[in-house]
Amino acid sequence: MKIVFTPESIEDLSRLRGFIETKNPDAAKRIANSIIDGISKLKKFPYIGVEVSSAPDPEIMRDLILGNYIIRYLILDKMINILRMWHHKEDERNGL
What we know:
The chain is an alpha+beta fold. It is built from two helices and five strands. Strands 1-5-4-3-2 form a five-stranded mixed beta sheet.
């Protein structure tokens, strides 16, 4: 499986890292690396995420929960599209 990041997901990771970086640069780097490492596991286990029940096809749209972070992704053919990511305290409907 190939993993592809949408421009929005890249912006999300940058936003999350920037928010943490203002208070703790080391933690920001560690968390960003942890998110990337977790996402890389989707190559072997694409269905480990929770189905998004509100999606038109919950089988292929899933949320990977990594600690306090949620990564929404879509499985298409042999590709995993990372759509968005956010902290669990953020509301996914507000701008995400």
